[in-house]
Design brief:
Strands 4, 14, 15, 16, 17, 18, 19, 20 and 21 form a nine-stranded mixed β-sheet that branches. An eight-stranded parallel beta barrel has the order 5-6-7-8-9-11-12-13, surrounded by six helices. The chain is an alpha/beta fold and 439 residues long. Strand 20 and strand 21 form a beta hairpin. It has two domains: 8-37 and 297-427, Lyase, Ornithine Decarboxylase, Chain A, domain 1; 108-291, Alanine racemase (TIM Barrel, Alpha-Beta Barrel). The chain has helices at 22-29, 38-54, 71-79, 89-97, 114-123, 133-146, 185-195, 216-236, 262-279, 293-296, 330-334, 423-427, and strands spanning 8-9, 15-17, 20-21, 33-37, 59-64, 83-86, 105-107, 127-130, 150-157, 179-180, 199-205, 242-244, 286-289, 300-312, 316-321, 340-342, 352-357, 366-373, 381-385, 406-410, 413-418. It is globular. It contains twelve helices and 21 strands. Helix content is 30%, strand content 24%. The protein binds ligand LLP. Ligand LLP binds at residues 64, 67, 85, 108, 168, 170, 207, 210-211, 246-249, 290-294, 330, 334, 389-390. Keywords: Amino-acid biosynthesis, Decarboxylase, Lyase, Lysine biosynthesis, Pyridoxal phosphate.
């Protein structure tokens, strides 16, 4: 078993996280159950912040809350002094309910609505990351109507292809996000923003993709953006106070993944920015980053109970669990791979290779193919590692299956941060039919 954070095997041969035996957690909270190792999240957050401190760079480390947004999680981010990246009014609302300081909230998105921008203004958030011309003009007009100002960054696409899954490439030219740096759009946006009275341009933002293992993509993107900033300083006397380099630092899901320590990415990127800005005679900007997955991904484990099995002789053995694509859509959507253990018998010898099926009415609802396991029986517990990012946040109610609860564990204690959905929750938005049919 690869060990993440505080996960270990206890005397009973059970998986233990944050000092809590997951077998007892399953008895108490039921399964499926998402478990977060809070100490590991804190460790990652501190490592990011320390890297900036050690290099003497003013920074904001913003947690990309799309990875897992919940009041408790946002409060944890606040405890660690992180900033917060939100991409919708819903994520912003969650942050407000959590009491997160508005001035450290950054609002993203390629199609923010008028209502969302008004909410950002009402809450006086720290910064709107403007994605397109429509938004730039709408925001200036709204600020004008209200007699207010708003800090902005312009999101630019530097034309860098990161080595990652096609669906999550965003830095290349053919992307729905941001102003293109190569074809003059970014410069046009800059000129417009500089002429505007209400929006205050702090700098630029770029994000090249997600689950990236190499630093080259980040440093190339930083180089291109800084080169452009040098040009803009000469021609428009614009000097960026802030350079936001996004998130995307890869993590280990299986032994095929060979990431750097998350903070190591940052170290290499900052060094490049320092080098390049010195070379081009620019003041070092504040650096903002937006890690999501690398803060919470490997801190999350999902615990399931094993139920039925189906043996297709000479072909494959399916073991079904009580969750699946409802609580983790990533295998179905991205062909994502995970590792798992029998959490109540971690030390038992591996006896067979099985494939883990979810319980949804969909052949594609397969969580893990070809997993080596001890012989499992109904009621055994399966712990799937690394489900902390884009698990709960992409969970759904297909087949009207309630979403599992989320607990935080730390220092031998467990705390419920999202309760299990009830059947009443599932029908609470439904309205009975009023129209009757004449017989
Ligand atoms: N900043 C921006 C502007 C982003 O678009 C994203 C992710 C992040 C930061 C955080 O990236 P991270 O550090 O988590 O890689 N659902 C997909 C991932 C989509 C990522 C979208 N944007 C998945 O499950 O792999």
């Amino acid at each position: 078993m690869h060990t993440y954070g505080t996960a270990r095997i206890n005397k009973e041969g059970h998986l233990e996280i944050g000092g809590m035996d997951v077998v007892s957690l399953a008895e108490h909270y039921g399964t499926p159950l998402y478990i977060y190792d809070v100490a590991l999240i804190r460790q990652r957050a501190r490592a990011f912040k320390q890297t900036f401190e050690q290099l003497g760079v003013t920074a904001q480390v913003a947690y990309a809350s799309k990875a897992f947004s919940a009041i408790g999680m946002v409060q944890l981010a606040n405890q660690e002094g992180l900033s917060l990246d939100v991409v919708s009014a819903g994520e912003l609302y969650t942050a407000m309910k959590a009491g997160f300081p508005a001035e450290r909230i950054h609002f993203h998105g390629n199609n923010k609505s008028r209502e969302e921008l008004i909410m950002a203004l009402e809450q006086q958030i720290g910064c709107v990351v403007v994605d397109n011309f429509y938004e730039l003009e709408l925001l200036e007009a709204l600020c004008n109507d209200r007699g207010e100002q708003m800090n902005i960054l312009l999101r630019v696409t530097p034309g860098i292809e990161a080595h990652t899954h096609d669906y999550i490439l965003t830095g290349q030219e053919d992307s729905k996000f941001g102003f293109d740096l190569n074809n003059g759009q970014a410069e046009e946006a800059l000129k417009k923003a500089l002429e505007m009275k209400r929006v205050k341009l702090l700098g630029l933002h770029c994000h090249i993709g997600s689950q990236i293992f190499e630093t080259t993509g980040f440093t190339l993107a930083a180089d291109k953006v800084i080169q452009k900033l040098a040009d803009w300083k000469n021609r428009f006397q614009f000097e960026a106070k802030v350079l936001n380099l996004g998130g995307g630092f890869g993590i280990r899901y299986t032994e095929e993944d060979k990431p750097l320590e998350p903070a190591k990415y940052v170290e290499e990127i900052i060094k490049e920015v320092q080098l390049k800005t010195t070379e081009l005679n620019l003041a070092m900007p504040e650096i903002w980053i937006e890690p999501g997955r690398s803060l919470v991904g490997d801190a999350g484990v999902t615990l399931y109970s094993i139920g039925s099995e189906k043996d297709v002789p000479e072909v494959r053995k399916y073991l079904a669990i009580d969750g699946g694509m409802n609580d983790n859509i990533r295998p179905a959507l991205y062909n994502a791979k995970y590792e798992a253990v029998l959490a109540n018998r971690v030390n038992d010898p591996v006896e067979e290779t099985v494939s883990i099926a979810g319980k949804c009415c969909e052949s594609g609802d397969m969580l893990i193919w070809d997993l080596p396991l001890p012989k499992a029986k109904p009621g055994d517990l399966l712990a799937v590692f690394c489900t902390g990012a884009y698990g709960y946040s992409m969970a759904n109610n297909y087949n009207r299956i309630p979403r599992p609860p989320v607990i935080f564990v730390e220092n031998n204690q467990a705390e419920l941060v999202i309760r299990r959905e009830s059947y009443d929750d599932l029908v609470k938005l439904d309205l009975p039919l009023n129209v009757t049919v004449k017989q």
